[in-house]
Fold this sequence. Notes:
about 35% helix, globular, Cyclic Phosphodiesterase, Chain: A, alpha+beta, three-stranded antiparallel β-sheet
Amino acid sequence: MSRRFAIYLAPASGSALHAVGSALLGRDAATGETIPSPSLDGISPERWLAITGDARGYGFHGTMKPPFRLKSGESIEGLEASLAAFARGRPAFDAPPLVLRAISGFLALVPEREDRRILDLAADCVRAFDRFRAPAPPEELARRRKAGLSGRQEEYLLKWGYPYVMEEFRLHFTLSCRLEAIERERVAAALAPHVGRFAEQPLSVDALTLFEQPEAGAPFLVRARYALAD
């Protein structure tokens, strides 16, 4: 089965963060529509399209439970019911504002400071929904290892199917591919006028969103959004 699912933090449709993030990536994952990207100073449209290529396929999001295939014997209906119950049992909260930073060579919006509530929510998602996850195929494990994993990251890759979980996790909303330092600085400067406003307001963590990739290579789309408790 090539269909994959993922549990993400994704801003609500109609919010400023959703609008800006979707426009910058050139696609709205809630509707599947292509969106013209804004003009970025010093970056050609063709280059920006290439820079955002991978991120555009996943949609604007922060990962909670990385993409996975359903394990044999599990159903999408069971996953949805479990996620709905999980969300109802977790309180919504305001997290620190988002700022533009470089992570391992790519640019992303990240909380300006660490927030234990985000880390705990992500860890709980990884644990709670792992029973639905089919083991990662060998080629996927090999691809992950090309990044050069630490011993702990290798342990997590084997246990959870993804190396950057638990204390290796950092919430981020990806906006670019990996870039050389000079271009990264130029792109960051071009992005600043578009994302600077989000440093002035808290990040609303009010829902978990189930994304679906219908087949290998297809873009991820929002399947359903589950509100956290008030």
